[in-house]
Amino acid sequence: MTDQLKAKLPDDCTTMAEVRQGVDATDRELVALLERRFGYMRAAARIKQTRESVRDEARKAAVIAAARAQAEAAGLPGDVIAEMWETLVEGSIAYEFVEWDRQRV
User: Fold this and answer.
1) Which residues form the Chorismate mutase domain (predicted)?
2) Binding residues for substrate
3) From the annotation, which residues make up the binding site?
């Protein structure tokens, strides 16, 4: 049984221990999803023909706008999510540059 299946849903928590268990399980899931996302960055680094193509400001803006819209539709603070995604996307771009260089040494 996965950690998330053991953890109670937020509305079912009655103690801080249950909340913390749920947060910790969710954080582990998020890291696993980020591992997959960064795998896509490695794939992009392999596929892109030029180093200059790694940074795509139009794509970056579209990704952040989509995250903001999805967050707001879910009742989450769009500004907070957009700021998080700015950091995520910039970190992904930096990682992709490193991978682009590494794969061509």
Assistant:
1) 10-100
2) 20, 37, 48, 96
3) 20, 37, 48, 96
